[in-house]
Write a structure and sequence with these properties.
The complex is a heterodimer of chains A (about 180) and B (about 170). Chain A has about 180 residues and is mainly α. In chain A, about 70% of the residues lie in helices and about 0% in strands. Chain A has 9 helices and no strands. The longest helix of chain A is centred in the first third of the chain and has 23 residues. Chain A is globular, with a radius of gyration of 19 Å. With about 170 residues, chain B is mostly helical. Helices cover about 70% and strands about 0% of the residues of chain B. The longest helix of chain B is centred in the middle third of the chain and has 30 residues. Chain B is elongated, with a radius of gyration of 48 Å. The mean pLDDT of chain B is about 80. The chains are: A mainly alpha (about 180), B mainly alpha (about 170). Chains A and B meet through helix 2, helix 3, helix 5, helix 6 and helix 8 of A and helix 4 and helix 5 of B.
């Protein structure tokens, strides 16, 4: 375990008292996973960057009132997921920023093209999900969180998370169902 | 069939290792005999490798700098008004609890002092002081004349009015 001084909870409280260095440490430590969550949810670099930035600014704004009742990561996941869901509710789903296709001269090019196509299809299927189902999938599959943790982040019960994931998987299966080779 | 539907509802939690040991064992036993539930479970499991194909691009190099510069400007905005905050200074010198407390105490003291003075006066002189005699209250015609100088068309001189007041008042 890191020293108390270096723990996230302490750093946030220090940032709340005006210690900007502490805030810098928090950003350096958590920006990568925050970025991954936001990008996997939105599928768009600019939107993901905006969400991550807003999340850290909100954190700084609320740092003075922060009380370490729960783990810091749960607290920050909650801010992040709320911003993602708010944005998704305000805007129409936006389709991916997958890089343009370029001829690939290296061996195994065909496999890579196939992988890209698959990823693009998964992206489209994720974008077609309801925002809270998509967030549940992101937290379960990419962040490896359990039902209780997801429930705490989405402010719901573990049973509701189970139902949310069941519906999301059913929906994904329907959307990707025509790709027979995925399920063979 | 009824039990099959009941188990199917738990297949997601079964795959995610979220069930109690007892229920997990029941479902495992059921799956051995139920091809339908096995097929549903395989469908759920097939999503896993598929979703893992979605790689996240690396964090933009400028992101940290962008966050920190916005945070710095936000902090500056938050600190600046505090330096010139006149109401804040006034609050420090005259805190609201002190102002409210002093006002209430002054009002209460005034009320108590007034009551005490009234009661003390009543005890000294008795009820007579508070009785208005008709003879004293009624103004004579001469006194009225004394106030005539304040009217629009005074008839007498100021000396005459003062003399009339002194004569009748005494």
């Amino acid at each position: 375990l890191p020293d108390y001084e270096e723990r996230d909870e302490h750093l946030v409280q220090a940032a709340g008292k005006g210690d900007f260095k502490a805030f810098e440490k928090i950003v350096a430590r958590h920006q990568a996973w925050a970025w991954q969550v936001a990008w996997r949810f939105t599928g768009d670099r600019d939107q993901a960057a905006d969400i991550v930035q807003d999340a850290f600014l909100r954190l700084l704004n609320a740092a003075g009132r922060y009380r370490p009742t729960a783990q810091f990561t749960t607290y920050f996941y909650r801010i992040l997921s709320r911003l993602c869901l708010d944005r998704a509710r305000k805007k129409q789903p936006l389709f991916t920023d997958t890089p343009p296709d370029r001829p690939d001269p290296l061996p195994g090019a065909a496999d890579r093209v196939m992988a890209k196509e698959t990823a693009a299809m998964v992206r489209s299927a994720l974008d077609a999900l309801a925002p809270n189902q998509r967030m549940a999938i992101v937290l379960k599959y990419y962040e490896n969180l359990n039902y209780r943790e997801i429930a705490a982040i989405l402010n719901t019960s573990p049973k509701a998370v189970e139902r949310l994931l069941a519906r999301a998987r059913e929906h994904l299966h329907t959307l990707l169902g025509n790709q027979r080779h995925f399920f063979s | 069939m009824r039990s099959c539907t009941r188990y199917k509802n738990h297949l997601n939690a079964y795959m995610d290792n979220e069930l109690s040991r007892m229920l997990e064992k029941k479902i495992r036993d059921h799956l051995v005999h139920c091809p339908d539930c096995r097929a549903t479970l395989q469908e759920i499991q097939a999503l896993d490798p598929l979703l893992q194909t979605l790689d996240s691009p690396p964090v933009p190099e400028t992101l940290k700098h962008r966050i920190l510069s916005r945070a710095k400007s936000m902090e500056k905005k938050r600190v600046l008004p505090k330096k010139m905050d006149w109401p804040g200074w006034r609050e420090w010198v005259f805190p609201s609890w002190l102002v409210t407390g002093t006002t209430t105490a002054a009002l209460m003291a005034g009320l108590v002092l007034g009551s005490w003075m009234g009661w003390a006066g009543y005890r000294e002189t008795g009820p007579k002081q508070f009785q208005t005699t008709t003879a004293k209250a009624e103004l004579t015609a001469t006194e009225f004349y004394a106030f005539d100088m304040l009217g629009a068309e005074p008839r007498g001189s100021i000396e005459a009015a003062a003399l009339a007041m002194l004569t009748n008042g005494g």
